[in-house]
Write a structure and sequence with these properties.
Number of helices: 2
Radius of gyration: 15 Å
Order of helices and strands: EEEEEEEEEEEHEH
Strand content: 35-45%
Helix content: 10-25%
Largest sheet: 7 strands, antiparallel
Shape: globular
Structural class: alpha+beta
Number of strands: 12
Strand order of the largest sheet: 6-7-8-9-5-4-12
Length: about 150
């Protein structure tokens, strides 16, 4: 991984949440999120402080079911899709989050802003198709990224 793989900043908030980058509003608990391929996913029922609206490209691309919008900022934080072709997610409606519009709050004032979920996968150095995330794992990644920048 490179120093630019993720930016780590100190920010005082509670722990273990995927947050909207614009408002820092809670979107989903880290315990409910998985890295599946190069996508960050969760079941739609685990969403918090979000509004789902029909995706404008639903007719042309039926797998795009809904846009997930942050209630606080109106930001487009992800999509509900049914085209993930792996494990328990296959063929089901799944929330896929956008790296460009979300950050991972690890607690202890540490927030990680990945440029892409592929960058997180590269930092994890794993070939497993699905990875269960934890706050402890993310804090370790944040520490590694800070060391590379220093």
């Amino acid at each position: 991984a490179t120093a630019t793989a993720a930016s780590v900043c100190k920010h005082q908030r509670s722990s273990g949440m995927l947050r909207c980058k614009a408002s820092y509003t809670d979107i989903c608990s880290i315990e409910d999120i998985r890295l599946a391929g190069n996508s960050l996913v969760a079941w739609p029922a685990s969403l918090r402080n979000c509004r789902r609206v029909p995706h404008p490209q639903r007719d042309a691309k039926p797998f795009l079911r809904d846009k997930i919008l942050c209630k606080a900022s109106g930001g487009h934080v992800g999509n509900v899709q049914n085209n993930l072709a792996m494990g328990e997610w296959k063929g089901k409606n799944v929330a896929l989050f956008r790296a460009t519009d979300t950050v991972l709050d690890c607690g202890q004032g540490v927030i990680i802003d990945f440029p892409s979920w592929k960058a997180m996968r590269e930092m994890l150095v794993t070939s497993r198709p699905e990875v269960t995330l934890s706050t402890k794992m993310l804090l370790k990644l944040a520490g590694n990224a800070e060391e590379e920048v220093a």
